[in-house]
Every structure is written in C-alpha cells, then in structure tokens.
C-alpha cells in the first residue's frame, strides 16, 4: 500500500452484499397494525405479511399463497366455526391460520380427500416490545428466536413524538455506514440551528462494546451542536449502535430524557427502509415539537439526497477507502457482521470484536 495510505483500508466487493439472519428486524409500529388489518412488507427480499387478528393476536406469514402465488395480504380475515381466525386468499379463498397451516380449500368437494393441514406458508416469529414490532428472520424457518427483541432506554412520555419514514435507494450496509459517519455533518447537515461547515472542532470520544454493537459513552454534547441548547441544564448524551441496523441517541437532562431511535430495515439488495422515532418527557419537546419534527425530517432527507449522489459512484462498484479514526465505526460494523454470521454458522456465542478505545476526528 502506498506510504500515504498506511492507515487506510479498502472495503472489498463483499461490502454492500448479503444480509444478517437469525436476528430481529424492526418491522412496524404497534399502532400501525390495527385489529383486522393485514400489511404487506418486503424484508431481506422476502414478502412478509404482518397482521393483527380481530382478537388482537399479532402474527407474520410469507405473503405468497402456495396455490397460485397471490399475496395473502390482499385477502381478509375469516372467522372459522371453531372460533379461530384465518386469513382468506383473495384469489380462490384458501384459508390459513396464524401459524401458517392451511385451514380450508373451498373448491374441494366432499369425496376429494386431501389433508389440507399439510399445506403451509412460512410463519415468522414476531414480537411486540415498547410499542415496536420486530420480526425474527431466521436461517432455519422452523427454529425459535434465540433471544428477545432489543429494549431501548428513554422510551418515555407515551407514544413517540416523532415518526418519520423514508426509503433509501441503498443496501443496508451503505445506509448504516452513512448513519454512523461522524464527519459528514458539517457538509450534509448545514442549518443555522445546528451547525455550519465553518464550525468544526477536533473531537475525542470514548467508545465501548455493547450488546451486538458499540456505544459512544455518555458525554457532554459538542459545543458546536446548537440544538442541544433548547434542552437547558447540562445535557449528557450516549449514542449506541446495535446489529442489524439500530442506532439510538439517549440524552438525559437531570431526570428528563430524550431518545432518538433510527431503525434500518433492508427491503432488498438496493433499498433500505428508514424509520426515525423520538420520545421524550422534556417540556421542550412538547413546546417545540413541530420544529423538532421538521428538523428531523430535514436531516433524513438530506441523508437521502446524499445517498442518491453516492449511488452515482457506487454503480461502478469501486473499492472504498476507510481512514482512521473517522471511519473506525464503519470498520467495526463490518467486523460485527462477520462475527455475527460466524457465530450463527458455528453455533457458538457471539464474541464482540470491538475493544474500548478513544477515537479522534474533526467535524
């Protein structure tokens, strides 16, 4: 490697390909799934139907009828004589239980013997936690989740005060690296109420390993980040990343809390769904909620515009170059992904490759 690049590493072609399995992916807000409603999503390139029965039970099925491939999410709930609730395919009326087993094929006549219960669509484990719905995308369709879904600090003050959604035209790897990049702020996010390109300082932040990820440990926010000033007092913040694509900032001001949570869910190889959520019991969030929501929306769309610009170069599949220390988090992400896949493949506990350290950069 040339002398001037001794601290640089090139990301190889595998970056931006493939997804992690045997892990929980954020799918929806619990409030999105009303009783009696069926919702179609694509996760990891797979069609997934999310539903909540009229009795309130949450479930997820592969959104393809095995008969003629119609999406089950276009169907409706049906009450069986047994009292069970099934989903009826809109094409020929085949009905499936919430476990994926076929319950009825209406076109069969009395003397046509067929064990319809042997016909199944894949059922995905699904869990509701803190008002969030997660789907377990397992490599083995029959295996149960190995762990509960993640739990986040700072989910306070009732429902989220901020909900914003967007789809990036990027693989989740590129979306994650853009999310954790500490040096792009002064260039991509230039607002009078945040910071400008001319307002840059050297930063030194301490990082530690956390469950399936790492954290920039609790510290005073940077002086050139004006938005924290509206919270008053002496705010302290901690920023955490966790596989497969969860990033949150937890701010405390005395006993008051603010949580900003970003969930990245891969739709397919070229699209990633971004869900930005915010909770708080701080009075400023109530008073300034429209402005905070508008600011969060602006940030997300600025990132989306930069993704589109980046795609102009990525379509040529160039090698990418990481530098120390600004891109160390991106390198950690790659190491975490490799270790997660290896631990699942080898049926052993996950060993976090991140070591406690101080990273320095200018932004």
* Overall 3D shape: globular
| Fraction in beta strands | 25-35%
Spans of at least 5 consecutive residues with low confidence: 1-13
The ordered H/E elements are EEEEEEEEEEEEHHEEEEEEHHEHE
Biggest sheet character: 8 strands, antiparallel
What percent of residues adopt helix (DSSP H or I)?
10-25%
Q: Return Rg in Å.
A: 23 Å
Q: pLDDT average, as an integer? A: 89
- Span between N and C termini? 27 Å
Please state how the strands of the largest beta sheet are arranged side by side: 12-18-17-16-15-14-13-20
Annotation, overall tally of beta strands? 20
Q: What's the tally of helices?
A: 5
Q: By helix and strand content, what is the structural category?
A: alpha+beta
What's this entry about, in short?
The protein has 363 residues and is α+β, with helices and mostly antiparallel strands. The protein is built from 5 helices and 20 strands. The longest helix is centred in the last third of the chain and has 26 residues.
Describe the structure.
- The structure is a single chain.
- The radius of gyration is 23 Å and the shape is globular.
- Helix 1 packs across helix 5 (about 330-345).
- By secondary structure, it is of the alpha+beta class.
- It has helices spanning about 170-180, 185-190, 285, 290-315, 330-345; strands at about 10, 25-30, 35-45, 45-50, 60, 75-80, 85-90, 95, 100-105, 125-130, 130-135, 160-170, 200-210, 215-220, 235-240, 245-255, 255-270, 270-280, 320, 355-360.
- It has an eight-stranded antiparallel β-sheet with strand order 12-18-17-16-15-14-13-20, covered by helices on one side. A four-stranded antiparallel β-sheet has the order 6-7-8-9, with no helix packed on it. A three-stranded antiparallel β-sheet has the order 2-11-10, with no helix packed on it.
- It contains five helices and 20 strands.
